[in-house]
Amino acid sequence: MVLNYMNKYIEEIEKCIECKICDDVCPTYLATNNELEIPRNRLKIAVKIFNEEKISDAEYKSIYSCTKCEMCDLNCSSEISISKIIGKARESLFSQGYELLPGHKNLRDGILKRKNSTKGDPKHLLDYLPDNFEYDKDSTTLYYAGCLSGYFLKSISTTSVRILNKIGTSFKVMKDEICCGSPLVDLGDIESAKRFFKENLEIFEKNNVKELIVSCSGCYRSFVEFYPEIIGKTIPITHIVDIIADAIKQNKIQFKKTDKKVIYHDPCHLGREFQIYDSPRQILEAATKNLVEFEKHHDDATCCGADSTARAGSKDMAVKVALKRVDKAVEKADILVTACPFCVFNLNYARRKNDRNIKVQYITEFLNDLLD
Questions:
Q1: Confidence of residue 2 (pLDDT cuts 50, 70, 90)
Q2: Is the pLDDT of residue 4 over 90?
Q3: pTM of the model
Q4: The pLDDT value given to residue 6
Q5: With contact defined as beta carbons under 8 Å apart, do 247 and 372 qualify?
Q6: How far apart are the first and last CA of the chain?
Q7: Range of the domain at 325
Q8: 122 burial via Cβ count (<10 Å: 0-12, 13-18, 19+)
Q9: Which residues, at least 6 apart from 59, have a Cβ–Cβ distance to it below 8 Å?
């Protein structure tokens, strides 16, 4: 039986006129040539899911290999919210009891057990802090590191807090930080996500946290989009690029300018969904003499391949998508900079595994090397 709230998604899918525009913009299809990964075909699979019809293993994987980058949404001639529908299809699959892909099961189990997506030891979360680092324990602003940059790509958090301190931003860090819950939403496990959402807000209240600063685009999306949508409340949040851009305008921080050619990769949700395009470019213009652009940038920027847990379930596909972006960067620049830890991880992995000669850095890592 189709749940009532699913009917509206089926009706929206029926607006598809098979114009095939989405064939030309989907990063996963362009990397794999798997026709099940064409957005219009994913929509057909979604209808079967909402109607609780049996789907094949290949169809199941195509729903979870979508990065929900929203490129198809942007170009859809019928203005269908394709990425949103894919997310709802995942919710339906999870509620129907379909078994998660091995990588996704491993991810979920780690979050539920360790309360972070990297299986990191919570005792070591604050290891990213520089030696003898001081912060304002009475501040109501929390630097929320996030799982990937808190446990795995620690240099992102290390350089982020160092730059915030240099600017003079009042903030604190917290040893009992837990996952924002975003990966659980992307897996379709909404009930577990709700528990994390509520626990996070309780932790913030207990520690007198009134607002967040984040380096992770996934965390940003979670607090801005998922929390209000799923539990009806959230907490004010600012991405670190907006803070640094403001500080540059107010002459609170200066950087030496590198002669290297630098290219900026727009993270999908930070860009297409939240339109944070100017701040990172204003920052980079203050730190390089040679800022160049991809042929496809801003709303037309190509996905890195890692988002919405796609990499955890379909690594080979994700790396193929990333390599296409890396190769475009190699043609123009010496350093590839972005403002999302997931993008850093996947682009750098593709670069390293395929021996491409370019440096990949998070924006604060890049800036840290150029501090006056």
A1: low
A2: no
A3: 0.96
A4: 82
A5: no
A6: 63
A7: 252-368
A8: middle
A9: 36, 45, 48
Alpha-carbon distance 310 to 27, whole Å?
Answer: 12
Cβ atoms 73, 52 nearer than 8 A: no
Provide the domain count of the chain: 3
CATH code, domain with 216: 3.40.50
Nearest-angstrom CA–CA distance, 325 and 233: 36
pLDDT tens-place string over residues 6-49 = 899 999 999 999 999 999 999 999 999 999 999 999 999 999 99
Residue 233: Cβ-neighbour burial (10 angstroms; 0-12, 13-18, 19+) = exposed
Query: Residue 337 forms beta bridges with which residues?
Result: 264, 361
DSSP string, 254-311: -BPPEEEEEEEEPPHIIIIIT---HHHHHHHHTTEEEEE--SS-GGGPPP-S-TTTHH
pLDDT beyond 70 at 251:
yes
Query: Final residue of a domain: which of 68, 95, 122?
Result: 95
Residues recorded for the chain: 372
Distance CA 289, CA 230 (A): 44
